[in-house]
Design a protein that fits this description.
Elements (H helix, E strand, L loop, with lengths): L1 H18 L3 H14 L17 H14 L1 H13 L3 H5 L6 E2 L4 E4 L8 E4 L2 H11 L23 H14 L8 H14 L4 H8 L5 H9 L1 H12 L1 H14 L1 H11 L8
Antiparallel strand pairs: 1-2, 2-3
Length: about 260
């Protein structure tokens, strides 16, 4: 197979050189060639995003606080804000409004600013942590970096998350972004509208957020309950009796659709 690909690539290279096709033009050439050959990229198969269950989340937070007060608060803040690790390490004292219960992500993906609401409990813990400070990194590292600063790096946060996961006895591979998946799934399960979750996470494209709705066990369970609950079964039975099985099947599909579809 390797020899065949090498021979074919040499033949294509000869054609490109002979015709004087530059790098930019090759993209259009190969695109047109794939279209004429009827070739298309295989559809991406996406499963449910990995996440922590509620039980694992509790064990994870407990193990983090057992490792130290600041470690616990850092992990809790990372989880509950749904921040990307690059956003988290950039947080400063000035980005936290205790009164409004908001953490401001000044430079999210694409340089966009967003405000993330936080629970009263987390706000109180952050207030105690900040104390009388008015500026500077929200979390100060005990170790100096290469530049002499005491700011946590993304690599150090990743190591911290893995260490806590091991102490909590969590077998699955845990990394900071998985905590973001966990928070998004939890908000969806609690009934937050998907467009609000999009704003919370800072997704520019709602398609990146829809994967949580498409794969959420909580949402599937709610749909299942609508059909299998007494009221759902009675309603479907009445529709089928009056209008036949075809209309009844259509009614069942409507019953299992989201009450507030995303537009």
């Amino acid at each position: 197979m390797a020899g065949y690909i090498e021979r074919l690539s040499e033949e294509i290279a000869d054609i490109l050189l002979r015709e004087g096709i530059d790098h930019v033009q090759t993209k259009a050439v190969f695109k047109a060639a794939r279209a004429k050959a009827g070739l298309s990229a295989p559809k991406e198969r996406r499963g449910a995003p990995l996440r922590l269950t509620i039980e694992e989340s509790l064990r994870f937070i407990d193990a983090a606080y057992a490792s130290g007060g600041q470690t616990g608060l850092m992990v809790q803040t990372l989880l509950e804000t749904g921040a990307r690790v690059s956003e988290f390490v950039a947080l400063r004292v000035e980005d936290v409004s205790i009164a409004e219960r908001v953490v401001v992500i000044e430079s999210g993906k694409g340089g966009k600013r967003r405000e993330v609401p936080i629970r009263s409990e987390l706000a109180r813990l952050l207030a105690l942590h900040i104390g009388k400070r008015r500026a500077g990194p929200l979390f100060i590292s005990r170790e100096k970096g290469k530049s002499g600063s005491r700011v946590y790096t993304r690599q150090r946060i990743g190591q911290m998350v893995r260490d806590v996961a091991r102490k909590a006895g969590i077998g699955k591979r845990l990394y900071p972004h998985l905590l973001r998946h966990t928070m998004a799934t939890r908000l969806l399960a609690d009934g937050m509208d998907i467009t609000d979750i999009q704003k919370f996470l800072g997704h520019e494209d709602i398609g990146a957020t829809r994967i949580y709705a498409e794969t959420s066990v909580a949402m599937l369970r709610r749909k299942f309950d609508r059909v299998t609950g007494d009221e759902g079964r009675d309603l479907l039975g009445q529709v089928r009796h009056r209008h036949g099985d075809v209309v009844g099947a259509f009614a069942a599909d409507l019953l299992t659709s989201d009450p507030d579809p995303v537009t």
